[in-house]
Amino acid sequence: MLHTPKVFDTVIYIGFLIFVLSLPFGYSTVFLNLAMALVFVGWIGRMIAERKFGWHSTALDRLFAFFLGLALVASFFAPHPATSSLGYFWKWLRAVLLFYAVVHSCLGHLWRHVVVAFIFAGGISCALGLWYYANDEQLAMDFMGQMPLAYQEEMRQGNGYAISEKLRTELRKHNIPLSPSAAFALAQVPDEWRIEDAARERRYLIRKSEACLMVYMIEPRLTGTFKMPNDLGAYLALLIPFTFGYFVASLRANPCQSLWVRVALGTMLVLMCLNLALTLTRAAWVSVAVAAACIGTYSVADLLFHKSGLKARRLVFLAILTVIALCLSLFFTPRHIKARFQTMLEHPAGFMGERPQWWQTSLELIRRYPLTGIGLGRFRYEYQLNGPPEQYNIPYHAHNIYLHIAVEHGMPSLLVFVWMLVMIWRRLLALRKSADFWEMGIFIGGSGFLISALIYGIADNVLHHRSLLIFWFVIGVIFLTSGRHGMKARLPEREAIPENSQ
Question: What is the domain partition of the chain in residue ranges?
């Protein structure tokens, strides 16, 4: 019958599959919203069909209530309520509801399919990203200015045509000083023109609009299937540690674990790491490196001290090969990636851009509004009023999740958020002694995921847009898995749930 709980569980299952498959595609917002709508309809429909509320309490219930309540207070008592903030409150509420939808799902072993789809979608996205990069597509573009339509006649001369002094003067007005050897390059689509300036290692794109010519500088930063390279970097900073955790779990699992699982996970990790390198997102580089180091150190130490033998030697050997491969890769890394990495070591002028000023302004706003904050989504508005006189780039957030929560929600909200993290770590630790491949993967991958997110959050706002959904989705999976693990541990041995029924 159409109203049975099993039908609604199927709707939830399909909704979660569409959700994880849509996450790595920046222009799939419609499918993302459709997926969450299916999940919530199935969740509510199942409660109606079963005629019971069936609420599963978690350690985060009261903390979520406090956090969302403080967010409403911050929204209604903002210093400048003319700007909107309830939309940002809805984004947080939607993410929290997604967490509870995961926790209350009754999919059993079908959750394995959702986890596989989550990793598989990332692998497909990264394969497309490499294809885009090889074909010089989907790269970041920095808007430089506008020019009159009259200049299009000159640019239609074709590939290799010299640039006139008149056009050079116009481009110089937009901070584009071309070298004498700069010339037009072959355009990929109609009404677009490219300028190659090999001497200055710069490339520019001129695109025709209805009223003018739009001028962009092409950056060698991959956006892939996302709209911005930082969006792709944030996604990979969350996904790579999670995938790496399952890869390590496959090495530690029973010998019956299929070889193709390890090969598939290893291949996807390579694709993801290549995409991460091409985004030139330094915060994501650091966060993933620290998470991977923590996962590797824990796994090797755990095997050496508790399960020494073939598995320990295998993992140590893999760690040595990984270090050797990383060292050898330095000789084949493209020059622009090396230059980006070098800035992390030398700290040249302009390193980290305007972030220190954003952070300084954030601290000033926190001192001014410590309890209620400035209101959700109002950082850009308040920065324009309270920031330095000369503002080249006006940010939408503080580029630091801790400062951002404190400045927009208030200091009490930051304390609640930190306590949430403590509760999440406690649930993760409940899985650390599990021998099941899926639970082991959740523990190792979830730990790396959380470490990477918290480190990435020091230099950027990882709890923003769909990264916020990814964060609470994975946390929901952690609570769902650890809850089942605890339930199995409490059952008598003769009533324990068989592994193949999960």
Answer: 1-54, 58-138+223-489+496-502, 139-222
